Amino acid sequence: MRYLTARKRAEGKGAAHAGTEEHWYMTVSGVGLAFLIPAFLFIFGRAMGSSYEVVVETFSRPIPAIVTGLTLVVGLQHFIKGCKGMIEDYAGGSTRKILIIAVITISYFLMAAGIFALAKLVL
Amino acid sequence: MAQGKPVERPLSPFMLGQYYRLQMTSVSSILTRITGNALIVSAFLVVWWLVAAASGPDYFEPVNAFMTSWFGDLIFALSVLGVWYHYLAGLRHFLWDAGHGLQIETAEKLGWVCVIGSVVLTVITLIIV
Predict the structure, then answer these.
(1) Stretch A78-82: mean pLDDT, rounded?
(2) A61 touching B, CB under 8 A?
(3) Residue B40 is part of which domain span?
(4) Which helix (H) or strand (E) holds A32?
(5) Using CA atoms, how far apart are residues B51 and A109, in angstroms rounded to an integer?
(6) Among the partner residues B9, B50, B61, nearest to A117 by beta-carbon distance
(7) A6 pLDDT band (50/70/90 cuts)?
(8) Best label site of A98, B75, B76, B129, fewest CB within 10 Å?
(9) Domain count across chain B
């Protein structure tokens, strides 16, 4: 049985053990994405469907490369926390841990692959 | 606590299902989660396309052909709809966090703003790009 009362578990930094840290991160990254997403949609939408030369030329310029890199990194960090919240709502125990680890791994892999591609296009 | 038996406290049932009637606030909330998580598919495609562009024209052409096929267009059109819905729903959360728009009528109206607004923004985006 649990020796802690429900009230005791909620005290201090609460059951999440991190207080409102994640909520605050979602607010900050959300504000960032509110500016990044329209710019990214414009840049990416214009480039998609263009010829290979135009695509390479687009992403070798600083603004499209920086906006795309930021959108990927901030967007995927935002995704990690949002998806983690969903997993914590619907799964428990080892399933929860495995799913969270998988989500974080896939997200960092996508960030690394995206940054690698942009670096190669810029240089 | 003499028996040391924990009290079974009732839990609130899930917002969708037999316990609650379907309503704008719950549906618009779960849609935020669905669109946000579904966007991982778009992230995969965007990164794949960028890696293809960085790998050279030989690898880029088939990947680009897939992305610009009717199937690719469909996925990206849905992604744009998802991203705008999630965008507006996120702005709605900022409003709520600041303590505004929490009255039931206003919250329901804001749900419609997200649904209709995302369709309008998607059409505008697809026209511009």
Answers:
(1) 97
(2) no
(3) 24-128
(4) helix A21-47
(5) 12
(6) B50
(7) confident
(8) A98
(9) 1
